[in-house]
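Dear colleague,

Thank you for sharing your sequence with our group. We've completed the structure prediction you requested, and as agreed, I am returning the results in plain text so they can be pasted directly into your records. Please verify that the sequence below matches your submission; if there's any discrepancy, let me know and we will rerun it promptly.
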Amino acid sequence: MNWITNLVRPKIRSLLRRETPENLWIKCPDTGQMVFQKEVEDNLWVIPGSGHHLRMNARARLDHMFDGAEYEVIRVAEVPADPLRFRDEKRYTDRIKDARAKTGMQDSVLIGAGRLDALPVTIAVQDFAFMGGSLGMAAGEAIITAFLTALERRTPFILFVASGGARMQEGILSLMQLPRTTVAARRLREAGLPYIVVLTNPTTGGVTASYAMLGDVHIAEPGAMIGFAGPRVIEQTIREKLPEGFQRAEYLRDHGMVDMVLPRAEIRPAVSRLCRILMKREAAA
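Please find the predicted structure tokens below.
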């Protein structure tokens, strides 16, 4: 037995070994720069230097938007979990369980009611981490509940959107959420209450074809992809090369589909100002 190899070396390694969290660093997708996660988190999940906007989960969004991170979570009525008994590589019910365990959410939309710079507001956030923010019966019911909550409480409604589109595991029942949410948006407009949409990366599919593009004001985060079909599908269909930056937030702003593109740190004060203007309220002291 080589006592140096079998005894001494392992002891030295154990003394030198340091426990380091796996998520201590984040790599910037644009520049490849390694940044401390805590630094990125403190910067609202925006990479310092490059300004690349990472995805921000629903609870972090609500904490940032509401005064003192205090708000009431609005409950949503339960819907059938697997109405079509769908199964591909695994059962749909198992996919939902995995997504709930991963995100701590019941489905892809979280609703909060509270105050933004002392003004009562209702805010909903669509979280891409929950099955790509896909729109199914539960998400549709949550969006409608958010509209009705704003209508009942006479508050502005702010929606942060992030979605890959309709949830294929629910088929036509998923597509039925498009007209349902559109009717809810119409009811809010008829009541004269503001509906402000913040488009984040990505906002695509049936969500873009319905409630995501029905706001009074549309704000987008820098670099967010916004569209119905993906660029590759469009290129293959029309057999032409798309313009540079096509379907990105800045391109859509320049072509009139989005009202403004704002860095994440500027969205809260901008939404606050818009709500007060549209509600004809004086600025908070």
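Summary note from our side: The first strand starts at residue 25 and ends at 27.

Kind regards,
the structure core
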